[in-house]
Fold these 2 entries.
Entry 1:
Amino acid sequence: VPAPGALVARVVTDVSGVNKEFDYLVPGSLAPTVRVGAQVRVDLSGRRVGGWVTGVGVDPPAGVALRALAKVRGWGPEPELVDLASWAAWRWAGRRGAFLSTASPPKAVPSLPAPALRPPAPPATASAAAAAVASAPLDRAFVLRLPPALDTTPVIAELAQRGPLLVVVPSVERAAVLADRLGRAGGDVAVIPDDWAQARAGAGVVIGARGAAWAPCPGLAAVAVVDGHDEALGQEQAPTWHAATVAAERARRRGVPCVILTPCPTLELEASSQVWVPERAVERRGWAPLEIVDRRRQDPRLGLYSERLVALLRGEARVVCVLNRTGRARLLACAACEELARCEQCGAALAQQPAGGAPPYPLLCPRCGLFRPQVCASCGSTVLRHLRVGVSRAREELEVLSGRAVGEVTAATVDLPSASVLVGTEAVLHRAGRADAVAFLEFDQELLAPRVRAAAEALALLAAASRLVGGRRGRVLVQTRVPDHPAIQAALRADASVLNGPELQLRRSLGLPPATSVAVVSGPVAAAYVGGLAALPGGPVATLGPDGDEWLVKASDPATLADALAAVPRPAGRLRVAVDPARL
Ligand SMILES: [Zn+2]
Ligand SMILES: [Zn+2]
């Protein structure tokens, strides 16, 4: 029992599965370094474990014998991030410690350097986008729909004039490039995670990949998220938090603007933000002209290599060809008319039922579960064939067709090949650096994948291609059997709303996000947990499943879902709860 006047600190540990806080006595020697957010070591059930201080000078529960705090490791997240972690733990049904870990330095920071708060020089002329930010709402995010080839550095530099700016980008490579540009403009830039201590001390700009949404930034005056549509901003493993959502909440709590830059706002962003759209001419300049090759009208013997593609390979200096060969989608096409077999309800590619199943019809939509007879919807033929899109010989064949050396690039490629023609998975779009033309050899695999966000991801690929070729100056070729698809039409017209209009209708009719909020629940004890959710009074959530060992839990909105997930005690055992996962 603590002596009267003894200092007591409350601690949450990094032990998996333990969300509870414990109180510890603070020895006099440690008192100066014990502050909210500090990283500490404590004894818990006979083990020495790591944790964070969540309160100092608290009143411990009566009659409990307290242990002494063992050690202070050093500086940790700012107090406001300790609060934000509690919110995120509720929002994504995760552990507070998981978020505090993300918000902490990669190694202990016992002392801080001096603050370095210089902003980069502002751009010579403020852009219309930067001017629009003056009217940004402070209660939700402000989306700037800027075309893919437009350099966003001036908008970032302009925002940094307000005071310490936090910038979140999709990758560490992008963070390094932007940090370099801002640094050359005279800004004091701290890059996360390496410069965590400088960021905690104070910096003009704090910048990093997804985890930087949790980076320290004392005096935070604005938050920017670059390419807010990028899948890499959402964490795949549970808790499945999204950097744009965290950034928006962080800014809202502080009463500062959260500016999200993207050429193609997702429906999720549109639902939660105010969207600003530039003049048509600005968007048109920043998207590449799109050339569409309708593969239904081409000689099937040409396979992946249309006449237009061959002309491109022979005519342009630096060409990047994209072919996702992971085989995650196998397309069925009509042998008579080349029309693809698609779901009439949701548009995804239909798949053949595995042999041995006893379905009402042989074709199934993997996205919405609709069964179909094996008949071409266009010409009535009953002969369908699989399109073999996993072409391992693409590189050799392209070499023969172009008469030039062709290099191969995948996510695993370390050194970029020196060839002026490259072929690879979508990783090549992020690795190639620059190109005069991009060709998607088989785009339908992306467009019709049985995922909720397939069409949005396909548009994001077209945006990445537009950026690689420098917008209007370059060319993008798309080989497809679905030329009228809204994702292709959106890129063609340099207007993301061409996709988002029909896509929102579709999601509403299927009850999918953002019209609803969903969680995927799996693991050995999922059945018991889902049973508890189904039994909640008032029925705040609908439970669907199981599909294998996975259940889908649906609510009208994120808050209702989070409240329901928190209301049911978790059974002991392994349980995975993925709230609004990026891959659905
Ligand atoms: Zn369907
Ligand atoms: Zn047909």
Entry 2:
Amino acid sequence: MKESLPVRRPVLNAGFVVLEEVMGDDEVIVRSARVSTGSSGNPEKDRKLLQYLMQHDHATPFESVVFRFHIKCPFFVARQWFRHRIASYNEYSLRYRQAIDDYYVPEGVLSEEEMAEYRRVMEESLKYYRLVIERSRDLATIPQRRRVREVVRGVLGSAFYTEFFWTINFRSLMNFLRLRLDPGAQWEIRQYAESIREMVRAFVPWGMEAFELQVKGSLASDPEAT
Ligand SMILES: Cc1cc2nc3c(=O)[nH]c(=O)nc-3n(C[C@H](O)[C@H](O)[C@H](O)COP(=O)(O)OP(=O)(O)OC[C@H]3O[C@@H](n4cnc5c(N)ncnc54)[C@H](O)[C@@H]3O)c2cc1C
């Protein structure tokens, strides 16, 4: 049974993924692939069709499913994320709004002493940022205050959190997952990719099955599938 939307999962110490909207499902992919004939009326055959499409890189039917997410992640994760060009992004603005106070706190990497220093640096930069923003409230015009926000955000390190909306079709999402679930990808972005994989599975179970079989290299040619 499909989960009702929105679906929210916490990620890292202060981040999240919210799946807000989904357009389409496995059946839409099948319908797009069989544009003239519609469903075969045989669910097992339709399920196999998705695997056939995946194996033969007949990828456009997967584009008919579109997901819209709300993401909160550290800037350094967003920087990697935004390299995925085949998607739409709308990010929280630090020109118009004050920065989000949360910063990423890694676990099990730095020593206790290093972590204490890490937190000190973060808190100091946040304190300075807030102080300058507070002072800027006395400036006469909105453009002057905005200009201060534009430049003072530079003191916040890439571990501070940002938020954005991400709209992406299923084909491009699979490309994202393929690259960002890989053990070679940075651990932090992998945590987001894993959450997204699990959220999406509920809406396109056959599609995700075909994707995972392909990643494992175990898609078998099935001439009956079409
Ligand atoms: C583990 C890892 C390490 C990385 N390290 C680095 C690094 O050190 N430096 C760095 O700069 N980047 C790095 N990247 C980013 C990587 O090079 C890609 O920019 C990123 O993964 C987005 O992939 P993509 O282009 O497939 O995705 P999208 O931009 O979403 O594109 C999806 C697909 O559309 C097609 N496409 C999109 N745009 C074009 C185009 N202009 N021309 C032709 N085809 C296009 C391609 O088929 C592409 O695969 C790394 C990525 C990973 C996963």
